[in-house]
Amino acid sequence: MKKTYEAGSSFRPAFFFLKEDQRRALSAYYGYARAVDDIADAPGMEHAERARLLAAWKEAVDRIFSGGPAASALEEELALAVRTFPLKPEHFLLVLEGVTGDLENKTYATYAELELYMHKVASAVGLACLAIFRYGAPRAPLLAEKLGCAVQLTNIIRDAAEDHAAGRVYLPAEDLARFACRSADLGGLNYTPNFIELMKFEAARARSLYTEALALAEPSLKRRLIGALVMGSLYRELLLKIERGGFRVKEGRIRLTLPGKLIALFKAWRDYVKI
Fold this sequence. Notes:
The chain is mainly α. It has helices at about 10-15, 20-40, 45-65, 75-85, 90-100, 110-130, 140-160, 160-165, 175-180, 195-215, 225-245, 260-275. The chain has 2 domains: about 10-105, no CATH class; about 105-275, Farnesyl Diphosphate Synthase (Orthogonal Bundle). The chain contains 12 helices and no strands. The N and C termini lie far apart (about 40 Å).
């Protein structure tokens, strides 16, 4: 039986709206993104070992696109995806560059710096997804940019305390300063008014990105966007849950329940009708 790599992923519901070859390719790509991210985040692993393993993935990407022999089952699946869909090396290398940067960069001074990071680890993923969906509208790159940043910013909001505990602060220093919020306020169990205002600001920014991405959808190709609409709706609903809960992100990772996922699917269908 072919192994699937997306089990447990927040994107899992989107797979049900795809054809078999798309599901297989997207599962493999998700497996790649998960693998390199896990290396960068591996607790207790020496820096040098993380760098070595990520460099090995750079060699694997080179093999995949040059037609070299696969070194693992995942590489075989990725090679099949590359042969089947218009995937490009940058869809893989930008993600690798982004997570490799996590080994060194622990903070971001400005939103522009964070945007560049999100472009690598999230918007590149969006571009790969659109390639697998065979969505080739002229504004597809900008749609992937907006939606990728929206999803990644939602993750950053949800994981602010968890990332702080790991020594990382993704929220821009300029934003923390704007709300007189210290990086230490992202940790602990105390929810200061400054922290809540910062979270509200970032959530509003993420909501705007979701709206801008949806406005870029090409009506004549909307059937090919169903997977992206579902993915975006799931994360937009997650953001709404975080907001409604008062940004209580320090007490464990917030997830959508089954009813929440069903609501997200309904909203994705509503967005589809409106395009």
